[in-house]
Specification:
homotetramer, alpha+beta, L-fuculose-1-phosphate Aldolase, globular
Chain lengths: ~230, ~230, ~230, ~230
């Protein structure tokens, strides 16, 4: 690469700042402890995304801990003034960005209620209007995939390509969520934990009363097109 | 409408301020995440009420995000300096104000323990003196009603008209609560979650030991007439 | 009464201040919501105790909301510059102070895990060394007693007189705890919720493994005599 | 002892400060209430460690409440300007430091989810990739050991010597964790509670789907060698 456009540099500065705020919201919403969890955001009009560095504590995190990577998940030195290794989940995020052009943000947590469904390898059934609104049906289970190659990324993409849901529960691992940007993906991470929690409590009271597919479609359609400003 | 009385304008300013505070208490009491949940308050001596705008985040909410509506749920431009679409639950709130003259405040949340009972379509049984005090008996389940017409509002009014309870658990959806003003309705939203949580934990230990109707009546009567300053 | 000793007035000022701090700790430890719960403290060398006013919110509570009462539970005007009705549980606190000379503080909450055991009318079994340390055995269930006369106070005193435990779970109601002063009673209220929570979780995993009486006695004896500064 | 090297004094000052911060993280992560729980750190190149004083409240804790002890658990007056009795769990920490040369930090809590497994005397099965990463397999149960002699320390060392896990759940008591320093031991205390919580929720949904030993080994090996900066 030759000279870097000023617009691109400014976009990266802004994304780093947003990602710091969004990582704190993982903490506020009780989705992560210690260094677990990561948020990434695609850089618009560039073959790049930005992701948390590996093993960084939320309490001391700064913009410098947000690492710019190419779409193969390799850090791009030109943009990273501090030498940081990106999140150990970077390959999974990169795979999603390479294969899902509409995705602008990815989040991974081990939030306990959603991860409980992942550990039991049970999808979260659609028993709440909130689940219909946000996920358009049950929240699916992905395969058991080990870190180290493209298995996790492929499991995410294969599962979400066949679902309206922006969240997948990777078996024995935890939720990955996607969105048009990092904020939307964080929202999905917050909502998957909230519906997991509520559904688990309902399961204790049982038996569950799933919504009809026609009801779910009506909820999802309205919410995606009418809700918000 | 011709000129607006100064008193009415001042009342609306004051209600907007109170509603901002009350929405924050939904957060403090863990009743809502992200943009879920809404509080409204009737404007005394006017055919108006004020409610949260649709899809607004709690962290950035200001008085301007509180939308003045008529009793059909339409925003009244004269009072809304900023253009905001009211909550997608506005029609349900409006229906309650039109049909229950004594109600001055309405709250809706998806608080997880109360919503778990709603998902299992089980009323919260009256096994706690606190439930007797606040709700005068079991907390009833309302119908499965979809957003988009008067079904939710009608379900709330029909259910609460036959109950001492200021809270109804709309099936597969979540609690709606009412009160003489918005503060009382928020109190009922806090209490329904607290008794739902405690009752669900008791159900785990089981079996539940419901209170006798005569005991419940005595608790409810005393609490409504003696408690407080 | 004639003139009031300056020492007594100073003691009351100090107790009011401490009670405000202790009530906030009920909130911090998730033992209460809205206006539920109350802490009282005996005034040393006087036939008096101080207790929260009825229906006061924790967020706006001040020293003036702490009401000085005689041991029959009647407010003593001489010490209360502001006119406040004491907690609706005042009669129960007063009964305890009249009948248990060593008790200097009483706390009542509806903390959800402990109240769940109360609703199921099951004592909290002694399956944790922490329960042995703090409570010297299982935490007992008291009778179902209604507010309005001495029934609650009598149920507390009768149950605790036959137990090493400073906490009793009043049936379908919630925990009352005692201590040599209000701080000790608040500590017992915090600990009863913590052991209730842990024991309920253990019950989910089940079956429970109760400690032997001889083990419990050794734990309790050491903790009461060796722990702390 | 004759004169004390300035380096040693500075090291102790620094450790006291770190231990205060780490004890607050037990509170932030909901691992402790009131005075329960304790963190210690070995002093490098000295036959000493530093531990919390007995019965100290987290809210008022200062560096002076961190007591310097020899490896038999006796306070060393030379380093303690304020007279404080060390934690009642000091003997267990001392035993670990005497018998495990690589351990630089020890933490003990009664965190409720981990302690629930301890009360049911069930190891936490390895059903989460996070458990494989951090603990290398199931988290073992230690013996029922009473305070007062070396029984607890011996139970910790015997159990952990036969496990990759840095955490042991002492039967009916609670978790003890170890690490190369106090920060690593606190991390293990945070993670054991997080996996206990998630696994208990998964157990409610059941049945659990344990990971294969070969999968666990691969996760653990990668995490110990690749994760972080």
């Amino acid at each position: 690469m030759t000279s870097t456009p000023k617009d691109l540099l400014e976009a990266i500065v802004e994304i780093r700042k947003q990602l710091c705020v969004l990582h704190q919201q993982l903490v506020t919403n009780s989705l992560v402890v210690w260094t677990a969890g990561n948020v990434s955001q695609r850089v618009p009009d560039a073959e790049l995304f930005v992701i948390k560095a590996s093993g960084v504590r939320y309490e001391t995190m700064t913009d410098d801990d947000m690492v710019v990577c190419d779409l193969d998940g390799n850090p791009v030195d030109q943009f990273n003034t501090v030498d940081r290794k990106p999140s150990s989940d970077t390959a999974a995020h990169a795979y999603v960005y390479r294969h899902m052009a509409d995705v602008g943000g990815v989040v991974h947590t081990h939030s306990p209620y959603a991860t409980a469904f992942a550990a039991a390898r049970k999808p979260i059934p659609c028993v709440l209007t909130m689940t219909g609104d946000e996920f358009g049906g049950e929240i699916p289970i992905g395969p058991l995939a080990l870190i180290g190659d493209d298995a996790i990324g492929r499991g995410i993409v294969d599962t979400l390509s066949n679902s309206k849901s922006p969240a997948v529960l990777m078996a024995n691992h935890g939720p990955f969520t996607i969105g048009e940007d990092a904020t939307a993906a964080v929202k999905a991470a917050v909502m998957v934990e909230e519906v997991a929690k509520t559904t688990l409590f309902a399961d204790v009271l049982g038996p569950l009363q799933p919504l009809e597919p026609a009801v779910i479609d009506r909820l999802h359609d309205r919410y995606q097109h009418v809700y918000g400003q």
